[in-house]
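Model it.
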Amino acid sequence: MSVAQYDAVTSSVRSLLESLPETCTASNCPQADWSGCVLRMAGHDFMDFANGQGGSDGCTDMLDIDNAGLDACLRTGEQGRSLLQPYQQFCSSISLADFLVIAAEAVMTSTRERERAARPGASAVDFRSQFRFGRTTAQSCDFAQGRLPNPENGCSAVEQTFLQRMGLDWNEAAALMGVHTLGRAQVANSGYHGWWSDPENSRRFNNDYYVSLLAKGWVPERAVSGNSQKNQWERSDIGRDQSFDGHEMMLNTDICLAYSENGNPVSATQHNCCAWLSSNVITGAVQNNGGEFCGGQGGGGAGRERGQCCGDAGANDCGSRNNPSGPAAQAVLSFASNEAAWLQTFLRAWRIATENGFEASLQGLGQCQTSTTASPSSTSSAPATSAAPSTPVPTTT
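Modeled.
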């Protein structure tokens, strides 16, 4: 694959995203939803990797309930756009597996440029220089069912999927979770409900996910939409949007990265606590949140700050307010205060995640294609159970 081909795919996907309306409210933010959709597809593709099998192979099991909603984004259209549209231009020369990785990179590049337009000092993100092609598209992947991490299982799911199967460390796993800065969770797809951040930041590729984890308060929200199998954390501080559409949330797999209770990463079903930190511990996160701490100003003592972050939740603190002890707490603190540190770690984690299982056959852009690379005939067909552009995602979860 040439640099020009990579750029052509990127341009076609960006054109779809950037053609969506600029409107972004709590009830309607098309660019956030479509961005989250594409990232969810790419993530669900590579998170089934285990023991050399699966990974970014262009195949996701559409019979797995965890992939609910992906078909619309891949084929029938999310916000009236689908990846099938641009893929038709490249299906004879680029494997679906490679295409889905490039499509996700195109979305992150575009939404990063939106961030840079709003904040001129922000650094660019460069996926192209490290991209390698040569992934082959799997024609079936029944083995993938049950491999996606269950958010209910919190950090044990993160450890099993990201560390044990995919080969990341805790810093890299936490960095990769930063894709949650784009899009939102919808009950119709995942059973969960809400934004990981405010709507505007949910269409920008930035470190606001980590800022939100630390500079806002969170309490358990059980039985989302009446489903006892779906439990999450809801924003609890004085700045929360109490409308249905503006609801902000975190999953167990998010909150557990930073917070623990009695030596165990927190879980919405097991712990009745408020996840918050003293403002003097998270000065970088507060600064990157426009100076806002739990919806207001920090200071005035622990009692005042706790009331501002937790309200009258009637819950104890999730661990120490001065020393977060989740398995990736130090990484979250670093990424919330230093966006460049997050981007650097993210790029490393992204490369590992998207190359797992194909390391020996991948080549840099501009290098000659070898026989181990997918042939045109194997790139254009849609695997029977795959997320082919006859089938990627709506939001992020």
